[in-house]
Amino acid sequence: MTSTTPTTPATPKSPTFADRLAKVIRVVTIPPVGAFTLVSSLYFKRGLEFGSRAAYLFAVLFLSVFPVLAYPLQPAIPRYRGRGREGQRSLAILMSVLGYLFGIIYVCFTHATDMLLTIYVVYVISGVGIAVCSKFLHVAASGHACAVAGPVAGMTYFLGGGVLPWGLLTFSVVCWSSLRLKRHTLAQFLLGGAISVGSLFVTIAVLRVPRFS
To answer: Which pLDDT score, from 0 to 100, does residue 162 have?
Structure first.
């Protein structure tokens, strides 16, 4: 008889400091945070051009709170219950789309400003662009990059070029975290960012939105 020596299971590799840092960066730059930063910056810096306090609160609700609601709602919805992270992501996308749609309805039935209309339209176009890349072109464009680049581009356009250096630094750090965690390739990340920036340019050109500077 030939005896075999039992093999010892490989010890899981402990996450490095860089891995933990990358995860923290991903968490603190989730799309709802980017949306909140955008609308809050525009409201407090360009209050009259942005709109009323109610318009600001609704923007926070539709663009920031709605996606976050996916996490407490998941256990209560049978379709998404028990599906783990994938179920949370699917529900978060659905809640985001609902938020965008409610935002568009809001601007259609109120005297919304051009700045606020621009924000909602850009989010809708960006969402459609990410969905088209994923579902029809089978290209995993980074939604995270889209949600970072869009607010940076919007704040740069409406608040001035002083925002751009900090925005590029943030975008670069988030890009590093995504590559470090292998969530996306560089091409996928840059494509996601390009979708939101392109959406802003298209919206500005079609609606002829001024810079309010």
So the answer is: 93
